[in-house]
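> agent: user asked for a holo structure of the chain below bound to pyridoxal-5'-phosphate. Plan: (1) validate sequence alphabet, (2) canonicalize SMILES, (3) run complex prediction with ligand conditioning, (4) return tokens. Step 1... ok. Step 2... ok. Step 3 dispatched.
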Amino acid sequence: MNRTYYGKLIFELSRPGRVGYSLPKCEFEAYKLESLDGTLLRQTATLLPEVDELTVVRHYTNMSNNNFGVDTGFYPLGSCTMKYNPKLNEELCQLPGFNQHPITPARYAQGSLKLYDEVQKTLAEIAGLSRFTLNPYAGAHGELTGLMVIRQYHISRGDTKRIKIIVPDSAHGTNPASAAVCGLQIVEVKSTADGTVDVEDLRPLLGPDIAGMMMTNPNTLGLFETKIPEIARLVHECGGLMYYDGANLNPMLGVCRPGDMGFDVMHINLHKTFSTPHGGGGPGSGPVGVRQGLEQFLPNPQVINNGDGTYRLQCDENSLGYISFFLGNFGIIIRAYAYLLSLGKENIPMAGKLSVLNANYIKESLRSHYKLPIDVECKHEFVFDGLREEYGGDHHDPEHVTTLDVAKRLLDYGFHAPTIYFPLLFHEAMMIEPTETESKETLDDFIAVMKRIAEEAKADPALLKSAPHDTPVRRMDDVKAVKEPKFTYKAL
Ligand SMILES: *Cc1c(COP(=O)(O)O)cnc(C)c1O
């Protein structure tokens, strides 16, 4: 990092008259400034930074070095699977044959349609469902699509009174948000002390106005919902459908299938589970799968395999309609295809098992220093409730070292922070997901640093309270950022 450029906007580096280029003299009379119609010329100069070439190169290079991503360091963000994206996939998704105009007629896009069909078929097999659409652009978009399938199913049977959807209190925030966008009323079901859905709390909620229930499994605490067979039976008996949030499906890959557990509709995040990371809000892909009997409600158009090596696009009159332009974020679908093929059927179960092993390894290694509120074997992620009392984490002490302090201190050591203060079930939640793709050395480094931070919290809490020390920007005033956001920069 260089002081001259560091933390400055390119406008602040600007000096009047400074140029970083040299162009040949214009030889054509008609294009010379003097020859142009004066009324077309602007009266004031554009506000562009005036900088020399080295300054502009260093400015952007330094800025790019300020990015943190899976390509620069460990990213244990729970509930948001940030695993690496094999570079091979980047090459493959740029093969010239896939560079097609979105309205290319189906007969000239047979290769792309074949790839789409193979991805949807593979996902259907992994999920134990009948058919997928790859059209939705994100997980939340998939949730909306899946809920619209459920609504369409009830409407098709003339059952129009089902206006409520059950969502557990531990659900990802997009679940109730998508349900509200779909026009459904949200009914919350509580979790028991062991972190799974409380069946006794569920029973009285069920009735003829229930469209279905959304569940995440493993749930957002990283726990396997063991009572699913009973829950699915109860919801089906009352006439509702079961929705599975499969945004983070990696622990289940090749091990068990939502369709076999009794789920009717689900979405998967290709940009979490199938190789593409998703920092900064996109791009994403949220395929939606349905069990047999619900296929006709999926969005238009569907890609249909004619069975003779050719493919067509088909629209169904029972469909919920269009959910996106064309066939979704195709580049992400190609990356997922490359990932699926490179693992192959025999190696896909390794992804699930390794993600579970890695999470449990970190959990068991750090429980001596951090509070573990739910002490069971986790799946791909788990939640600590801040530092243990003996390391300064006593919640009742107003001066206690918080999860935010630990997260900020982690940045000084070159790690991305875990998800913090989510789920809302614990005061000092710290949700860690290592994913299946990290080496043991990386996990050990992270464990050592987390322990060291706990020791620092005990010996010198001020060190954590004032962290981060080594980042371009120190600790933000989160409240001010929310209350008085400034999105513009006043040019000098
Ligand atoms: C990420 C996530 C979502 C939403 O996915 P987006 O692509 O961000 O819209 C939904 N549910 C769970 C459990 C998630 O982790």
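> agent: step 4 complete. Summary for user: The two ends are 24 Å apart (CA to CA). The pocket of pyridoxal-5'-phosphate is lined by residues 79-80, 138-140, 172, 174, 216, 220, 245, 247-248, 269, 284, 286 (CB under 6 Å).
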